[in-house]
Batch of 3 targets.
Target 1
Amino acid sequence: MLLAIHGLGSDAGAMRAYLEGAVPAGVRVLAPDLRAHGASTLIGEPDRFALEALAAEVADELVRVGDGSPVTIVGVSLGAALAAIIARSGRFPLDRVALIRPAFTTEPLPANLAIFPLLGRLLEEHRPQRALDELHRSGAWRAVAHESLAHARGLEAQLTQPLAAERRIRLLEIPRNIAYRPGELRIPAPTVVLASPRDPVHPLHVAEAWRDELGCRMLVSPSRDDGEAAMFAWFRQQLASFLVGVV
């Protein structure tokens, strides 16, 4: 079985851009919507948005639908952090793990994630259109746009998607988590890190730190600003190669 875990403010459907055509025929895919994302109706208190709590919910779902066979995990951004926790939990036999565009680090609220609590506060204080206007005036958004306009535009969806205000707690709380402690990031299965250049939310130095901690390969995609279709095609190609033999 393949477990696919999406990123912060995204949903399970976004995983198609990474996996469509890359998963071997016959492989079952579990792609859940995380709490306060997608079709999930769960929100809850701040402690429900600790990485360990989110990972436990995903793992419980995997127990419910799994058949005990080895699990392959593909996680994007927040999903990469949850994938690492699940892979290290010992709850499942593992086949392999792909960590795409990791964003979380050994520190709570690292600089690359600081814009998410800003988005949450704007949703607390303003209606979506006014929040979007205020975002464009902020130095944080302009700094992201200076490095990558494509990623800056992607952040706008955090304010305009359905139920954004009702689910703002995810933006306020999740970035406050650390992904791992130095020296403790060990995954007992073949692992690869896939990263992107010119990505201020998922910077290369974060991916490089994950690679160094894991002692695994890291591959770098084309830039999103040079063509989103080409970037996702690259991810699918790399994942198709990495997933050969998954059953």
Note: The radius of gyration is 17 Å.
Target 2
Amino acid sequence: MANSRAGGVGDAVVVEGLRVRRGARVVLHDVGFSVARGSITGLLGPSGCGKTTLMRAVVGVQVVEGGTVRVLGEPAGSPRLRDKIGYATQNPSVYADLTVSESLRYFASILRAPASDVARVIDEVGLGSHAGHLVGELSGGQLNRASLAVALLGRPELLVLDEPTVGLDPVLREELWALFHKLAARGVTLMVSSHVMDEAARCDRLLLMREGRILADDTPDALRTATAAGDLEQAFLKLVRQQETLA
């Protein structure tokens, strides 16, 4: 039930025929989709389905076998995109032997972001009380938020966030999603990956993935309606069964 919207001139991301191979294994099978500016697109699916590989291709750090990826009107990986994309990986991108503030000041200098950005992003991710703590002393959830703070430096136009809420308690997850919607409201485009289906309803649009393919590309309400499912987890399972029937 893939329903990929055609790429428009004003779209933040346009992917066409993307194919990625690792050795003999094809990781992404001719994937295509587009992401509207100022929207939150959720990339959902089980671990190992290709979400991280797809996000790496959008950021421009993934070797691809075929297809095209354009981001903010430029080929993915273009030097002109360096200060326009914020990327938070699943692994922490901050240094354990620096404090949160020191680490963010370091990255702000590399990105040529205003010095005032450090205090702003610390506040946005809710790490104000830990600004002077060593990164190595943070919990897993706090590390995720510190990495997200790095991605927010410089006010990027596109945020690519790989499992940003892993390890966070429900209150912090709620606060981060409120932040994501606030950023989208001011024109920032977000791609957010997750394997937690209850986060899917918070997105404007969903890309449901399995085994390197996009099973569906639509709004949460449209996916529930099309599959006659009570929730998005049931919708995903129905789509998987449909794919298996067609295979």
Note: The mean pLDDT is 90.
Target 3
Amino acid sequence: MRLQDKVAIVTGGGSGFGEGMAKLFAAEGAHVVVADINEEAAKRVASETGHGAIAVKADVSVNAEVKAMVEAAVSAFGRLDVMVNNAGYTHRNGPMLEVDEATFDRVYAVNVKSIYLAAQHAVPVFRRQGGGMILNIASTAGVRPRPGLAWYNGSKGAAITLTKSMAVELAPEKIRVCAINPVAGETGMLHLFMGEDTPEKRAQFRASVPLGRLSQPRDIANAALFLCSDEAEFLTGVCLEVDGGRCI
């Protein structure tokens, strides 16, 4: 049990990578708060996750809802050990000037502001406890950008830089901060990354990955489990590509 009795919040936990992390964390002994803007999805995953997992409805771009999310974890389980900022948003693949302002704002609110808000509420808890772990789910888009996703790429570049900045500032307080950079995966946003979900587009995306496939939630969950476990206690500021070689 690599996360025995640790308490973890997983945002965007109602599907995709978040669901994979929530279920694996619980299987490894963690008490999990499944947070999602889709309350029914969060409840479904929590019910399937077991080990006392609870569901919380939360828009990660709204300060009051992030505050309530962290408070729910502490109220239910008495502490918080792991904060996984997984919830994400993107614009459809296409010319950069065709992305409207509202969509741009939403991408940065969900992908970047959420990290700020989570820190505002989780870090004080970690400080009281003497340590903690923040895991940001960024993207290979922030390392090796694809055309047509300019603003999304930029948001994930910000997540990577924030991870390193937070890590060096919080290290003296035994608060670790790492990131995972997944390649495009089998999630609900895949059709937006590709522009359209067709066999031809999928083949094109797979061809850009040396290991020959897209990522799966289990790939991300396995990496997250290691980074959030005590086995990784000397790792901070690490931004790990889980990408089948895409960024080589």
Note: The domain at 7-241 is CATH 3.40.50.720 (Rossmann fold).
